[in-house]
Automatic annotation (TrEMBL):
<dbReference type="Pfam" id="PF01569">
    <property type="entry name" value="PAP2"/>
</dbReference>
<keyword id="KW-1133">Transmembrane helix</keyword>
<keyword id="KW-0472">Membrane</keyword>
<dbReference type="GO" id="GO:0050380">
    <property type="term" value="F:undecaprenyl-diphosphatase activity"/>
</dbReference>
<dbReference type="InterPro" id="IPR036938">
    <property type="entry name" value="PAP2/HPO_sf"/>
</dbReference>
<feature type="domain" description="Phosphatidic acid phosphatase type 2/haloperoxidase">
    <location>
        <begin position="69"/>
        <end position="176"/>
    </location>
</feature>
<feature type="transmembrane region" description="Helical">
    <location>
        <begin position="121"/>
        <end position="148"/>
    </location>
</feature>
<keyword id="KW-0378">Hydrolase</keyword>
<keyword id="KW-1003">Cell membrane</keyword>
<dbReference type="InterPro" id="IPR000326">
    <property type="entry name" value="PAP2/HPO"/>
</dbReference>
<dbReference type="GO" id="GO:0005886">
    <property type="term" value="C:plasma membrane"/>
</dbReference>
<feature type="transmembrane region" description="Helical">
    <location>
        <begin position="67"/>
        <end position="84"/>
    </location>
</feature>
<feature type="transmembrane region" description="Helical">
    <location>
        <begin position="154"/>
        <end position="176"/>
    </location>
</feature>
<protein>
    <recommendedName>
        <fullName>undecaprenyl-diphosphate phosphatase</fullName>
        <ecNumber>3.6.1.27</ecNumber>
    </recommendedName>
</protein>
<keyword id="KW-0812">Transmembrane</keyword>
Length: 180
């Protein structure tokens, strides 16, 4: 028997679908679609692993501690994110509604709530703001593009991205307080 998402998602899906469809309409422009796909791929893991591995180069003093903090925070976040995703079972927009050009890579699973890509983007932006704020002019646009790509490619609703951002913020703040 297929799990059924909470009824609130059924109502949100219909409300958000119009905006998701409008955003996905920009995908007819090949450069924009390529940028969304690249952003989504970078948000899978390469950007964040690169940021973790670059810590000794960015700020040698305490880099081992920061690397451990980033890794542990990301792993704890992944654990809760997966628990939520498999319990809430909200179908991705491209599954629920037809007519969305989506990422050329298949989604890792069929559920969309919350957005793990956005969760990690915000989490790493907040941690970076605390340790190497001079990177933010490059990291914030990347994080925004990652979040937009998830909606634009039909992989998430806007509320999925908002929930992912709030989770990322919460995990990063908690991590900074615990490590502080």
């Amino acid at each position: 028997m297929k799990p059924h998402p909470p009824a609130v998602f059924d109502r949100l899906d219909l409300i958000e679908w119009q905006l998701c469809r409008r955003l996905a309409g920009f995908n007819v422009h090949p450069p924009w679609l390529a940028l969304l796909r690249l952003s989504s791929k970078l948000g899978d893991w390469p950007l964040w692993v690169g940021l973790i591995l670059a810590q000794p180069l960015l700020q040698p003093a305490g880099s081992g501690h920061r690397m451990a903090q980033y890794i542990v925070t990301a792993l704890v976040a992944i654990g809760l994110y997966r628990l939520l995703k498999t319990r809430l079972c909200r179908e991705r927009p491209f599954i629920t509604f037809n007519g969305i050009i989506r990422c050329s890579e298949p989604a890792r699973d069929r559920y969309s709530f919350p957005s793990g890509h956005t969760m990690h983007a915000v989490l790493f932006c907040v941690l970076t703001a605390a340790h190497t704020p001079w990177l933010l002019p490059w990291l914030i646009p990347a994080a925004l593009l990652i979040a937009v790509s998830r909606v634009g490619l039909g992989l998430h609703y806007i509320s999925d991205v908002a929930a992912g951002a709030l989770l990322g913020l919460g995990f990063a703040v908690a991590s900074l307080q615990l490590a502080g």
